Amino acid sequence: MRILVLNSGSSSIKYRLLDLTRSTAVAGGTVEEMGDHREGLGRIVTTLAGQEISAIGHRVVHGGERFREPVLLSDPVIEELRRLNPLAPLHNPANLLGMERAREVWPDAPQVAVFDTAFHQTLPPPAFTYAIPEALARNHGIRRYGFHGISHASVARRSAALIRRPLESLNLISLHLGNGASAAAIRGGRSVDTSMGLTPLEGLVMGTRSGDLDPAILPYLARCTGAGLDEIEGILLRESGLLGLAGTNDMRELERRTRDGDATARVAVDVFCYRLKKYVGAYAAALGRLDAVAFTGGIGEHSALVRGLCLQNLSILGIAVDEEKNRSSATGEREIGTGAVRVLVLPADEELEIATQTAACLEEARRNTRTDS
Fold first, then answer.
1. Is this prediction's pTM over 0.90?
2. Which CATH number fits domain 2-115: 3.40.50.150, 1.10.20.10, 1.10.101.10, 3.30.420.40?
């Protein structure tokens, strides 16, 4: 089975054609500087001319409470997704454009929506409930949804395989660290807490997003500056995080500047890692027993400095990092810990996870069809 994975953003489309029988990529890339999604997908069609495409899997950022697992695309599903646009105005509309155009281009290929929020639908009420009036939360769908679920689900399965432990018995903290960053507490393959909330703004310090913030800062800024809520939200989303602290959201640049003695860069790195360390401690407490911590994403995979700092002095939790292994130039899935808690580094592979979930959704649909008949 060959599955085309599409990740449609507002200004680019990432794609990857995967042969699941061999777990290999046949083709892939990113289309940028496109006029619109019609033009972008047209370029992908040209690139993939002559390739067999069995099915298409679409990454969707927000599935709300309705979508708890991958779903076959249909007109009613598209309409339900459209109603979720206010929950993720920067992401879901772009995801929908990609789906609609792909259905026009490949009308005979079954297409599946795979949701970043679905993995976190197992959060218990104490983890997903905000302390605001219940009717307000219920009427407006305000709760912790969590994101990067596709990545965290993949990390959980791959971590269990790497340390040869049944997923059902594994207590894991997954750290997805890139320009967007989130942590998840995973018990037996099920998410029980995660750092992102109603939107991807909450939680860890990120490339351009503030992460956790005193909510009173918003009205305070409005009074002090005269800025409206939309303008302040834009600052928190696009001008904060590492960029706001040190003028760049590139961790590689911040590490270089830190080595050169740049105090501003050092503060940015320390804030990023301190926030991470607090979440590791909190999620160890939430899980009750911790078996492993796993890093993924561009920063998680490549930054020895971040890995070392955020796990420094955590021997009380059974966590210890082997500095030689941590700073090694080794690549691929590997272990870098020396304590009772395993410390893992896993290259991100969200596309393979989307393809795998797409195939499982199609197989489930086929089983249901056979049962109904």
1. yes
2. 3.30.420.40
Question: How deeply is 333 buried, as exposed, middle or buried, from its count of CB atoms within 10 A (0-12, 13-18, 19+)?
Answer: middle
**Percentage of the chain surpassing pLDDT 90?**
81
What is the arithmetic mean of pLDDT over 108-133?
A: 97
Catalytic residue among 36, 116, 230, 262: 116
CATH code at 165-350: 3.30.420.40
Backbone torsions φ then ψ of 240, nearest 5 degrees: -115, -150
Domain segments of the chain as ranges: 2-115, 165-350
- Is residue 317 classed as helix, strand or coil in its secondary structure? helix
* CA-based nearest residue to 3, from 43, 48, 37, 39: 48
Closest CA to 128 of 184, 83, 55, 171: 184
Q: Is 116 a catalytic residue?
A: yes
Same fold, 2-115 and 165-350: yes
Quick one: average pLDDT of 144-149? 96
Q: 181, 148, 187: which is closest to 275 by C-alpha?
A: 181
